[in-house]
Design a protein that fits this description.
Blueprint lengths: L2 H5 L11 E8 L9 E8 L3
Antiparallel strand pairs: 1-2
Length: about 45
């Protein structure tokens, strides 16, 4: 899925509760780019 789709609300992972998603790159730099995608989810508790 393209990053712009994941953050615009048109994602198939859309929820009805407060949620945090951090999407960034990771891994060693190869050819000037990081090859991995790192996705962190957080849910509101309490």
């Amino acid at each position: 899925m393209a990053c712009d789709t994941a953050v615009t609300g048109n994602s198939p992972f859309r929820t009805t509760r407060p949620e945090l998603r951090l999407i960034t790159c990771g891994g060693p730099v190869e050819n000037g780019h990081h090859p991995d995608n790192i996705i962190v989810y957080g849910d509101l508790i309490g």
